[in-house]
UniProtKB/TrEMBL annotation, chain A:
Keywords associated with the record: ATP-binding, Nucleotide-binding, Transport
Gene3D superfamilies hit by this protein: P-loop containing nucleotide triphosphate hydrolases (3.40.50.300)
InterPro entries xref list: AAA+_ATPase, ABC_transporter-like_ATP-bd, ABC_transporter-like_CS, ABC_transporter_ATP-bind, P-loop_NTPase
Domain ABC transporter: 20-254
SMART domains in UniProt: AAA
CDD domains on file: ABC_NrtD_SsuB_transporters
Protein name: Nitrate ABC transporter ATPase
TrEMBL record, chain B:
Membrane-topology annotation of the record: Multi-pass membrane protein
Pfam families given in the database record: BPD_transp_1 (PF00528)
Any Gene Ontology biological process: transmembrane transport
Transmembrane spans: 12-32, 67-91, 98-118, 124-140, 179-202, 222-245
SUPFAM superfamilies: MetI-like
Organism the protein comes from: Agreia bicolorata
Matching PANTHER family: ABC TRANSPORTER PERMEASE PROTEIN HI_0355-RELATED (PTHR30151:SF20), ALKANE SULFONATE ABC TRANSPORTER-RELATED, MEMBRANE SUBUNIT (PTHR30151)
GO cellular component: a single term: plasma membrane
Family statement: Belongs to the binding-protein-dependent transport system permease family.
Protein name per Swiss-Prot or TrEMBL: NitT/TauT family transport system permease protein
Domain ABC transmembrane type-1: 56-242
Key words, A-Z: Cell membrane, Membrane, Transmembrane, Transmembrane helix, Transport
Amino acid sequence: MSTESSAQNQPIASTGPAAVSVTGVGKVFASRKGADVTALEAVDLTIAPGEFVSLIGPSGCGKSTLLRLIADLDTPTSGSIEVFGKTARQARIDQAYGIAFQQAGLLPWRTVRANIELPLELHKVGKAERGARSSELLSLVGLADFADKYPDQLSGGMQQRVAIARSLAESPGLLLMDEPFGALDEMTRERMQTELVRICAETGAAVVFVTHSIPEAVFLSNRVVVMSPRPGRIRDVIAVDLGRAEGRGEGLREADSFFEAVVAVRESLHGEAAGAPAARGVDQR
Amino acid sequence: MKQSASLPRTILAPILLGVLAVALWQLAVVALEIKPFVLPSPVSIATEFSGSVSSVWAASLVTGANALIGLLIGAVVGIIAAIIATVLPITDELSAPLVAAASVIPIVALAPVFYTMFGADKETARQLVAALAVFIPVYLNTLRGLRQARPVHRDLMRAYGASAWQATRAVTLPGAVPFLFIGLRIASSLAVISALIGEYFGGPIGGLGKSITSAAASSNYSLAYAYVLGAIILGLVFYIVTLGLEKLVSPHRASASAP
């Protein structure tokens, strides 16, 4: 935390223990040929409770790797990660976070309701309590009428809503989302983004959101973390001040402040020379 | 909606083709005056079949019972072996060459050996042949299914801090069911074929295989074909029952053959 840029890696409003605290984290994947791949190098990032932070960058910048490290699905080669003051491993065991991936990853042999209840079931939550919680979540994501359907009877967007409901099952203070809307069409995607903003406002959870899309990152986030590849590191952290969730309607997508933030993120992604050709793998929509 | 629209095509078309083929067959036999020992006409086969329904039924029961016993034994042993091979990979490594060898040899070739081992007056040899033929596809497909857990599900189970047993029960075992049924579908036909062919190599009379050979040997070709028709129906029944069981157990999962 001594360099100039890392000052920006602090949350805008820090109250209480940080939701996520990443300190000097590096990740090296050993390949069989002996040529190690450095996926992440010297990453520092602190996320406040309730804060929405997007990780954006071209393919291979390590944004998904960083998310997996926070989730303790992989372990960092160097540095340390804390989630609500606990080690990443302890936080995973204590179910401090909920997680959603690009694939909804629903179990096809379970109903929508049973899919949402899966984490509760694994942690021995009583049947009545499970039912109450899943009903609550089903109406939160607007799928109350689909409780007894199976995943193959739902559209992609609906499946992803089920996955989000499942990630919220244990009321986590932190949500980790790895391109959850990446496989959806643009219109579904925008609707899901609006819903996610509403859900986050209702649950008060902090979110780490990996995405390829600049407008998506800007629309959702309090801060956008721009990453660069080879080796993956944080290039820039851009604060986006688009007001609280209540004000984030569809009109926001056409507001000047929205475009300004999009331009700021785009220029950061492309390095010093603004207007340079698009960075590879970054969705410009 | 889509299914009902394609219903005429999926059901009527094959029926039409079948009727057409049988009509052509009848026409060819009559017009070209084909001798019955070369090819009996469908009408004579149908007449013979309806005239000897009770004996075809009795023969089907004998062969069907052997096939069913073989199917059950082979499937149960195959599933247990696949679970063991998943839990203890060493057993898989040890048995891999054996399974590979067993999957290429025609199992029915063992029938004569089994008749001398278990006695030519018993059905045991035929049941064993069927069980062996069933074991291979059930074992291989179940094993594949048990190793099929999708990375996203594995990540989820880890994120939930699920124990190994919880992950097995929640993801691995149900995930393997479609693959088990692929194995069972192949095995259901194999069981009937093996039990029937096994009869050609000896053992007690009464089954479909023996009935076909003895009818052909006594120049009653239409009757031989009537038994063949019985064998076809028996095979279909086994296949359809397995398919129905699959639909009953897992109505809402993408077929495992789809990506």
